[in-house]
User: What shape does this take?
Amino acid sequence: LMGTMSSITAIPILMLYVQSDNALLHYNNPERLWLVIPVFLYWTARFWLFVRRGEVQEDPVVFILKDKPTYYVSILVFCILWAAS
Assistant: This one.
């Protein structure tokens, strides 16, 4: 439960960053960073669903490194970050 809540709490923190002056300093198009939020929400919800079903038997890091959709999500996030820069 704590992990799920921590993941959900990270989303509004990311939203605050996207709206901050720091995002304007580091990115030419910070409005594109909004696209990361649904991707992150999808990925965290998917991961915690697997945890809830008992499908994460090993270390979560090992599970994530073996999970093919995680690689696709990572590539998508890097593309969004590149588009925002």
Q: What stands out?
A: The chain has a mean pLDDT of 93. The chain has five helices and no strands.
